[in-house]
């Protein structure tokens, strides 16, 4: 007897459920919907009471309008699985219980699964369950470590995969408080770490930290350079290390019209004067600093060129 011919009389039965006897019933069925976690084995379990022995059983994928058999058997023995499902599904059924296991659940296993059971007294039971596949947070992508000048507004970003979409929370590690973006970074601290935690209630939450280096306000400082020697009519490049927060405004003196005089460097083309002082001044809200560079054409060269 094939499964189909066995089920045929009960197709009518489905339309007349009141004729079902009290002795044939589902005792326990999976929650509907049921939630499976990606990567883990997931088993749907049914318990039933039959008026007789188990005559036929079938598990199928009834997503949408289809009814695609996963595995079935008529009479005793093992369940024959369809090749398509064989590798990743395990099915078993006895006179009181049936189980369908999905091995290493994938997101594509989200489907509606149906159990059909026929007793030796030709009574038919069926149940269908929607399986929703969830996945824990994974692949966290977060802003890189930051170096900023206070005060500043800072927005740190954090994103992960996961189903349902993980909720992102930020914590300031120094006092363990939950914070929201953007951050208003004020001076007073030199560094701070922020932790992004992604949680969707599935598996373990995922977290990653961002280190923020806060550069506090600094009075301008123009670092020393020693004397600069160049050849006659050559081009000289003067470079100064300038520090300060906020970034200082730079000016060079003397400044000739053609020159760029507001950068950390000054280019002097065709040096003529044997000895000249060039001073670099840096100023910001906190103060002012300057330093002088002596530009010299070495004596011997001066002679030679003349
Ligand atoms: C899932 O079930 C298979 C077959 O029973 C077993 O080999 C495997 O170890 C199980 N995997 C997990 C994660 O439990
Ligand atoms: C179940 O059937 C649907 C509709 O035919 C199909 O899209 C889906 O891939 C099937 N599920 C599995 C796990 O094969
Ligand atoms: C350069 O500056 C020094 C010291 O500030 C000063 O003694 C010298 O006369 C200056 N040289 C020129 C060419 O202005």
UniProtKB/TrEMBL annotation:
Signal peptide: 1-21
Keywords attached to this entry: Disulfide bond, Signal
Domain spans labelled Ig-like: 137-207
GO biological process, one term: homophilic cell adhesion via plasma membrane adhesion molecules
Superkingdom of the organism of origin: Eukaryota
GO cellular component, one term: plasma membrane
Cited InterPro entries: Cell_Adh-Cytoskel_Orgn (IPR050958), Ig-like_dom (IPR007110), Ig-like_dom_sf (IPR036179), Ig-like_fold (IPR013783), Ig_sub (IPR003599)
SUPFAM superfamilies listed in its UniProt record: Immunoglobulin
Descriptive protein name: Neuronal growth regulator 1
Native organism: Acropora cervicornis (Staghorn coral)
Organism ancestry: Eukaryota, Metazoa, Cnidaria, Anthozoa, Hexacorallia
């Amino acid at each position: 007897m094939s499964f189909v011919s066995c089920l045929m009389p009960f197709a009518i039965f489905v339309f007349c459920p009141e004729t079902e006897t009290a002795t044939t019933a589902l005792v326990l069925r999976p929650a509907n919907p049921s939630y499976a976690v990606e990567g883990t084995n997931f088993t749907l379990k049914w318990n039933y009471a039959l008026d007789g022995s188990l005559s036929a059983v079938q598990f199928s994928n009834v997503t949408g309008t289809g009814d695609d058999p996963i595995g079935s058997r008529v009479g005793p023995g093992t369940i024959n699985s369809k090749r398509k499902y064989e590798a990743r599904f395990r099915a078993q059924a006895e006179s009181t219980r049936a189980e369908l296991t999905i091995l290493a659940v994938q997101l594509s296993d989200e489907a509606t699964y149906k159990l059909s059971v026929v007793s030796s007294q030709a009574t038919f039971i069926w149940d269908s369950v929607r399986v929703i596949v969830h996945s824990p947070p994974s692949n966290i992508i977060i802003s890189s470590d930051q170096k900023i000048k206070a005060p500043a507004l800072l927005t740190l970003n954090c994103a992960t995969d996961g189903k349902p979409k993980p909720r992102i929370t930020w914590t300031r590690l120094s006092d363990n408080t939950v914070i929201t973006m953007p951050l208003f970074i004020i001076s007073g601290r030199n560094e701070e770490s922020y932790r992004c935690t992604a949680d969707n209630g599935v598996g373990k939450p995922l977290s990653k930290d961002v280190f923020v280096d806060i550069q506090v306000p600094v009075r301008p400082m123009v670092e020393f350079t020693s004397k600069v020697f160049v050849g006659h009519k050559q081009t000289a490049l003067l470079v100064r290390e300038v520090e300060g927060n906020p970034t200082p405004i730079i000016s060079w003196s003397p400044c000739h019209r053609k020159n760029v005089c507001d950068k950390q460097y000054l280019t002097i083309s065709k040096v003529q004067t044997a000895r000249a002082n060039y001073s670099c001044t840096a100023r910001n809200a906190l103060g002012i600093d300057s330093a002088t560079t002596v530009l010299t054409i070495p004596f011997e060269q001066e002679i030679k060129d003349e």
